[in-house]
Design goal:
single chain; about 400 residues; alpha/beta; TIM Barrel; Lyase, Ornithine Decarboxylase, Chain A, domain 1; 12 helices; about 30% helix
Length: about 400
């Protein structure tokens, strides 16, 4: 059975984005691609395997040990770094699966870690101004580094920080953070404890702050084709990786005075033609777009009427007379073709459907686009949240060409 709502994940665009970012970095700079939060909603296993196969990144970044273990269980062998907190009691599991960890605790916390049979690689995080995780003082960094150095089963592999305002290049906050990070690096170097991998830059800093490059940069939203700010270098021409589509399941005429959806927040001032679409907030489409969002039908904007429901939303297609039951709807990304394969899309076997979708959307890479950034602003949020909110009941169909 096929509901008619799905996301196309362009893995070729993903790999090309990483390579384009690599092309503007100094030779030898390593890249970590963040695949946390189900690869920003794109599908962690498919994304991780595409990155690993392409050799476009040195490492993948996760938010939790559970996320990293899921990739290992799926056969992903590329180096993994958990960027979030991991309880020291879970260190043996990480070492067994060769998963590198972030450590933000004290020397005393390391005493909880029993002797490990396989050495564990640790990255110390320095809180230079994010106020979230990390060691606050240089003295704490030195103390923990000394404790790690004294244990043969622990290895200090990296030192890093996270920049809070890298997407505001004129703001002095980033420079202040980097100065604090340099202080920690210098102190460790003076003691002979400086690890081989220093990293500070996220996507924004990787493209705008050469003083933040160090040995490795961590790429998140840029890998998926979206800008961290409005000053994104246009010469890179990054490609969107996710494209979200659904289908019209009913078209009906409403008379003046008729209402649409819960709360009757939309009341027709004149007769209008309304299309029901099988996607809602349970799929990750924001309820905050009620009465203000829009989608694309047959290449034209269709305003959203009334409140977004859990499983459905309604569009005004009065001005699109050719719109029909079963037509594609583009929520964001490259515009869909005008019809779903003559309706056969819903009758095909899954493998045939995915092959047709792959062929159709591989050829659609030069189509006009329904911009996610525009929807994000209308919803009062950012593209990161919109992407990661697409729920698991929306099938991801990967294409690569």
């Amino acid at each position: 059975m096929f509901r008619g709502t799905f996301a196309v994940i362009d893995l070729s665009a993903l790999v090309n984005n990483v390579k384009k970012i690599q092309s503007v970095l100094p030779q030898g700079t390593k890249i970590l691609v963040a695949v946390k939060a189900n690869a920003y909603g794109h599908g962690d296993i498919a994304v991780a395997k595409a990155i690993e196969k392409s050799g476009s990144a040195h490492m993948l970044g996760l938010a939790s040990l559970e996320e990293a273990l899921r990739l290992r269980e799926a056969g992903v062998r590329i180096p993994l770094l958990v960027l979030g907190y991991v309880d020291p009691l879970s260190f043996p599991v990480a070492s067994q699966h060769q998963i590198e960890l972030t450590f933000t605790g004290s020397s005393e916390d390391l005493l909880q870690v029993s002797q490990l049979s396989t050495p564990l690689q640790l990255h110390l995080k320095v809180d230079t101004g994010m106020g979230r995780l990390g060691l606050r003082s240089v003295s704490d960094v030195l103390k923990v580094a000394e404790s790690i150095h004294q244990r043969p089963d622990l290895h200090l592999q990296g030192l890093f920080t996270h920049l809070a305002k890298a997407d505001s290049p004129e703001d002095g906050h980033t420079s202040a953070q980097l100065r604090r990070f340099e202080e920690a690096c210098s102190a460790l170097a003076a003691r002979g404890l400086l690890p081989p991998l220093l990293h500070a830059a996220n996507t924004a800093a990787a493209l705008q702050r050469q003083d933040a490059f160090y040995h490795m940069v961590r790429i998140g939203i840029g890998a998926y084709g979206y800008a961290p700010n409005a000053d994104w270098p246009p010469s890179l021409s990054l490609q969107r990786v996710m494209h979200l589509y659904s289908t019209i399941t009913r078209i009906a005429w409403l008379k003046a005075g008729d209402s649409v959806s819960y709360g009757a927040t939309f009341v027709a001032k004149q007769d209008c033609r309304v299309a029901t679409v099988c996607i809602g907030y349970a799929d990750g489409y924001p309820r905050s777009l009620s009465n203000r969002g829009f989608a694309m039908v047959r290449g034209r904007k269709a305003p959203l009427l009334g409140r977004v429901c859990m499983d459905q939303l309604m569009l005004d297609v009065t001005h699109i007379p050719e719109a029909e039951l079963g037509d594609p709807v583009t929520l964001f990304g490259h515009l869909a073709p005008d019809i779903w394969n003559g309706g056969a899309l819903f009758k095909q076997r899954p493998e045939e459907r995915e092959r047709w979708i792959g062929e159709t959307f591989s050829a659609a890479s030069n189509r006009a686009e329904m911009p996610l950034d525009t929807l994000s602003r209308l919803a009062g949020t950012i593209s990161y949240e919109m992407l990661t909110s697409i729920s698991n009941r929306v099938p991801r169909i990967e294409i690569s060409f």
